[in-house]
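Supplementary Note 3. Input sequence used for the single-chain structure prediction.
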Amino acid sequence: MQHSIWNYNYKAAGAGFKGEKKCDTVVVGGGIAGVLTAYQLAEKGINVTLLEAERLYAGTTHNTTAHMDCLQGYLYCDLSKESVQKAALYYESQRDAIDEYERIISKHGISCHFTRSDSFLFTTKNIEKLMTEYDALKASGAPAEFIGASTLLKVHTLGAIKLPRQAHFNPLEFLEGLPKNFEIIENTRILKVDVKDRILYSKDAVIKADRIIIATGFPIIDVPGFYFLKMYKSHSYTIAIKTAHTLEAMYQGDLQNSLTYRQYEDNIIIGGLDHRSGRVDEDRKYDRLEEKAAESFGASKTTHRWSANDCVTFDGVPLVGAYNKNDNGLYVITGFNKWGMTNAMAGACVLRDIINGKKNKFQPLFSPFRKKTQTGSFLNNALSTVNNLIIKPISVPSITDAELLPDSGDIVLHNGRKKAVYKDSDGELHICEALCKHLKCQLQFNPNTKTWDCPCHGSRFDIHGKLIVGPATEDLDL
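The predicted structure, written as discrete structure tokens, is reproduced below.
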């Protein structure tokens, strides 16, 4: 059951590339951001090679809830504090992204359950803040409507914002139906990038490129760019349920760790309960989602459970454009803040125009070098990283592997050495290195997913030490 509702659409991965190769434009990362970027560039006549470490769509993309929504929590009132123009520009970027999906789907006749839908943001606690968000949305040009106290999802709300003509779809059906007039190479994990000479190295390949676009979720190049200081990863959980109820709209609560709801065929998808990756706050995430489902929909059957890691920036806006200030042959697209469907499309269009020498009005908004907001969040992130990067790695575990309960994991002493140890239900030990392969932050066990997660930058490994998601590029040592 620990897989998303979209998985059945996967095709077998192609063989990895071995040898040397010269390319025009290389996109690294085969999720929706990488595929859309490659598509948009190829449509303009640019020769593109897409490199994927494993198989297409196997990262965050297949773990999305696939909302295409301009309504994104309290983002607009936050952006408006810096500038109403910034908030308006962001709204326009999201609206245009949904329209671009609809255009592409219509153009190519893609069958992917694309559905226009009203979206609701509701509150049970803070009507004043909701009204502030409503005012910010209206000032941004959004056709938002305010709904007074009512009952939504069997929950009494103090009020809600309605935004019409948002959308949802099946992302893998869309990607499978998208024409791909570009080269695709799977099973080729890039381990190192020579930024100066634009050379990519995998275990068995050397690839030279005129330009490189990093679309790997969390960027795999630490220097230059220093993207590990510009954002963090957030972990969220999702279930799909079968119930007698049907949703005609999309919904999201406004509280921290609140939930989102949408329909897909005869399933309702419920997601949320976020926490910073590697900093698990409880071990009953899926149970809590099922409890919330029962409150709103009564009797139901859970058909799927899954989780996702999303890159979060400190001002809520993606990072898209030149990777660093000194080299215009290297680009990045990342930091979608849990709204990856719209921001992947918006970012792909920005990169398309940058590379084609065309002005794009969203480029300054998404620039990785824009003026940052929320300095307090940045400082808190930096202090937390120092704790996990410097203090915890030199601390001595307080327990040994003998003290672990069955079906649990922790950083413990094993034969006198510090190790990441998971004890399965039969009492067998699965032993790995305790530090992430990225920057050597100490890992933490996630009991909800039975994975080792990095609290600094969100890399994840299974109980055998196999890499699930970066920015790390290697498995853990055993």
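The mean pLDDT is 91. The longest strand covers residues 301-313.
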